Protein: 6-phosphogluconolactonase
Amino acid sequence: MTVQTKRVSDPPTLAAEFAKDFADWSARQTHDKISIALSGGSTPKILFKLWAEQYADVIDWSRLHFYWGDERCVPPGDPESNYGVAKELLFDKVPVPPENIHRVLGEADPQEERFRYEDEIRSVVALGANGLPQFDLMLLGMGDDGHTASIFPHQRELLTSTEICEVAQHPVSGQTRITMTGPVIKAAKKTVFLVTGAGKKAVLADVIHHKGEFETYPASYIDEGDVTFYVDDAAGELL
Ligand SMILES: O=C(O)[C@H](O)[C@@H](O)[C@H](O)[C@H](O)COP(=O)(O)O
Structure:
């Protein structure tokens, strides 16, 4: 995996570093429908808060279209909802046109929603060379088991699926989720992982140095194109 790694001291500094880079990057985009897939989990919360506090008037939010790389199949008001967290911390505080927020309908039947979401992706995101939608930016996290989006270890069918999205299950909780597949994630023009915390340092070192193969660490499957890991000192200790 040939990736860039940006090492910063702590999570607030990591969020600030990425937010600055993102503002510069989005301003450089020459088209109007800039497609961004957000990750869930806890790490993005600090970024959402910073965007709301410091970038509401800096970024041209009207050009951005937000999707989710994965979503839990729960109603938007559920604390588990990745959309619900982003709405509370970010979308209720910055001027993104409502029609530019493309949430997964977590309350819907997962199999039906999977197909509906694929259509919503196709309605905005142009196809790349592999015939799949090519997002401008894929924002990802990484679990301490090396999962990314909702593709967990030993779920090869999700990594190599030819579909845009698949219904997935969390291997421990059994929670049903909808996830973008490995090829769609991999096809993005630009991919950023935000990784913090000592609990991820061993797996991150393996992923970055490609010691573990992608069956074990799905995050290591994302090894093409413009991939940057923003890591804090705790997560990056072994790099
Ligand atoms: O819906 C999700 O949970 C995420 O998309 C998932 O892939 C997340 O990015 C990692 O689990 C890291 O989560 P943390 O940022 O909470 O460590």
User: Anything to note?
Assistant: The chain has one domain: 35-232.
